[in-house]
Every structure is written in C-alpha cells, then in structure tokens.
Amino acid sequence: MKYGVVLFPSKKLQDTANSYRKRYDSRYALIPPHITVKEQFETSTDELETLIPTFRDIAHKLKPITINVTKISSFSPANNTVYLKVEKNDDLKTLYEHLHSGPLAQEVEYSYIPHITIGQNLSDDEHLDVYSQLKLVDVNHEEVIDRFHLLYQLDNGSWTVYETFRFGHE
Amino acid sequence: MKYGVVLFPSKKLQDTANSYRKRYDSRYALIPPHITVKEQFETSTDELETLIPTFRDIAHKLKPITINVTKISSFSPANNTVYLKVEKNDDLKTLYEHLHSGPLAQEVEYSYIPHITIGQNLSDDEHLDVYSQLKLVDVNHEEVIDRFHLLYQLDNGSWTVYETFRFGHE
C-alpha cells in the first residue's frame, strides 16, 4: 500500500487554498490541502504497524510547529506546480528529518521545500496566466500545527487518513 | 465548525465502494467511503477540544468492531440513497450510543442504520435503474475495524480528519 505523512493546516487556510485549487488543481478532489512532511512510500499493512511506535515517538518528542505562509510561488521551470510557500524553519526541518531517518529512511528525489499546492498539471500557457496573477496576491499568515497525519492511497488516487499523531502527546 | 465521526473500512472495501460511488454518488469527491457513527454536529474549536477526552475514553473502553457487509440496499422511498448494508450488531450499537450520550448527546432524526453510501441524489428513474441492478450483486464481507475518526467539514463540503482514536488504546 502507498502511504504518506502530511500536516493539515487550519480550516481557514484549507478553505483559502481550496478557493484556488478548485480552479487550478487537478488533484483537488483527492486530498484536502496539506503540507507533505514525508514523501510517498510503499509498504505492507503489517510492516506499517511495526512503524507506528516510531511515528508515535517522533510526535511525542516534538512540539507543535509554527508555520508562516508568505507568498504564492511556483516550481517552474521544474514543473508547473503553483503553491502557497511555507517558510522552511527549524521545526519543519527537524520533523522532516525524523520522518526520513532510522526505520523511516527513504530515498528522496528533491530537497525539501515545504508548501501547500494550489495548482498543478497546468499547461505552460495556463501556468503563465495563473501564476502571473497569483504571484501578486498578498499572503501573510501564521499558525500553529499541533499534529500530523499518516495517510494511505486508494485505487482511485484519493487518500484516507490511517492515524493522527499529536505533537507532545504519548 | 461542523464535525462528524466515522469508521473507514479497509482499503479493499473502500475501493469496492468507490467503484460504485464514482458513477452514482454525487458526494464521491468530498469524503472517502465510510460508516457514520456520529451524526454531524456543530461546535466551536475550543468547545471541541473539551470533548476530546470523552472520545478518547470511549475508544479506550471499547474493543475493535467486527462488521459484516451483507448486501446492497436502499433507503427508498424515504430517499434515493443506495448503500452497502452493514449488519447492526451490539458493538456498533454500543459505539453509536456512547457517541450520542453524556457530553456528546445530540438530537437525531432517524434510528441508526449502519451503512456505506454508494449512491445518492439519484433521480427516481436513475435510482430505479441502478438499484434494480445493484440489489442483485452478491455481497458478503467481514472485517475488523480498530479505530474511529473525528472529521470536520470545509467550506467546499469536503471533510478533513481532525483526530484518530484507536479502540482499546489510552
């Protein structure tokens, strides 16, 4: 089964992200707005259960994370994904490192850039059009996220939550 | 904010349900296949946090629940919802009662019929057509569900998981 780990921001920030995703994100219906903190990985359900204590330990060890969303940005020219930029800070970096080491180690293709996708699979023309407008939008938002979620993917590409882990809780 | 509590069945059962929902369920994109165990309720985020210990106690007190899916049924003539019938058993009844009493008490309009919706908002003609075929499908599935999920609704009508509670865990 395919798994991943994400942070869901507040309802307010999710609603804002969805107001863009509705129009620009081909994966809008498959998962709520999120910040990926562990890349997709493949494992069996039995194997996954042996990893749960590790996820719990990480949550227990860390404190809630303050995130700052500062602007709308794009991965272009690498790809035409447009996103709410989440400033990389020590807490996010630490969480990401914990979720990719020890029994959770996995190869990752890119360096970690925390973000909330709001548009993807846009044609070059669409991207040019959309991003030239959105990069002017004034975004400035801070909030605290106190949990992360482990998800698995269904055959239709959508994601269901397997378990929630609260920071600072045993 | 609007909240609700559901069981997510196994990936296998969710994939089966989605194969129907894709065609017949207007709410297909808003939430994964699920068994509602607490009706929608409205509360503030602060208020909700005071209820979390109650949800935790309920999970801790109860054991994983065996569900049996026995056929495809319909709420017609009450409405044109078609669903995978989940046999009502003592464990489901107990969970439902716990989730609707004490600090979680709320008025409910209907008696509890556990089910996984696979079609809704069908016209009478569509319903007649769809249900006359689906009621012949041979369904016979048993599985154990070891957790429930508390969700909240976004402005676009979709649901995000707030927290997971495992049966038998503190």
Question: Secondary-structure blueprint of this entry?
Answer:
The structure is a homodimer of 170-residue chains.
Chain A: E1 2-7, H1 11-24, E2 35-42, H2 45-61, E3 65-74, E4 82-86, H3 90-98, E5 115-119, H4 124-134, E6 141-145, E7 147-153, E8 159-166
Antiparallel strand pairs in A: 1-2, 1-7, 3-4, 3-6, 4-5, 7-8
Features:
homodimer, 170 residues, alpha+beta, Cyclic Phosphodiesterase, Chain: A, four-stranded antiparallel β-sheet, 4 helices, 8 strands, 32% strand, globular, Cyclic_Pdiesterase (chains A, B), hydrolase (chains A, B)
Description of the molecule:
The structure is a homodimer of 170-residue chains. By secondary structure, chain A is of the alpha+beta class. Chain A has a single domain, classed as Cyclic Phosphodiesterase, Chain: A, CATH 3.90.1140.10. In chain A, 30% of the residues lie in helices and 32% in strands. Chain A has 4 helices and 8 strands. In chain A, the strands form 2 sheets. A 4-stranded antiparallel beta sheet of chain A has the order 2-1-7-8. In chain A, a hairpin with a 5-residue loop joins β7 and β8. The longest helix of chain A has 17 residues. The radius of gyration of chain A is 16 Å and the shape is globular. The mean pLDDT of chain A is 96. At the A-B interface, α1, β7 and β8 of A face α1, β7 and β8 of B. Chains A, B: This is Putative phosphoesterase SAMN02745910_03055. Chains A, B: It comes from Priestia endophytica DSM 13796. Chains A, B: Its EC number is 3.1.-.-. Chains A, B: Belongs to the 2H phosphoesterase superfamily. YjcG family. Chains A, B: Keywords: Hydrolase, Ligase.
